[in-house]
Amino acid sequence: MEIRKAHFPGRAPIDAYGDGGFRFANMSHLGSLLCVPSGIYGWNIGDPAEFSDEAFQRVFEEHADIEVLLVGTGKDLRPLPADLKFRFREVEILADPMSTGAAVRTFNVLLSEDRAVAAALLAVD
């Protein structure tokens, strides 16, 4: 049996979240997600304290195709570290932290409008 890193090669709305994971594209994923133009990836981040340039590396690699990054910080809104906010501004990405639920809903709306949106979503119970 081959075990690969979780990756869905496309864009899809998030159908549900909670119980430590997400449902999208008739699949489920346990853990956090990173939704960027190249696809939806399992994201090995569980707490806003782990936010760093390295954690968002894939976002920075795809920055030319992203205008808005929605950052779902869990059950509650948690601000982004100042240095990370500055880094997003440098690559002309509007990074907007909010609760994961709000980020999922906003992501789905912007995705349906075919906007250049990405999302970094922490899983919630």
UniProtKB/TrEMBL annotation:
InterPro entries: MTH938-like_sf, NDUFAF3/AAMDC
Pfam hit, one: DUF498
UniProt xrefs under SUPFAM superfamilies: MTH938-like
Gene3D superfamilies per record: MTH938-like
Protein's recorded name: NADH dehydrogenase [ubiquinone] 1 alpha subcomplex assembly factor 3
Species of the source: Roseibium album
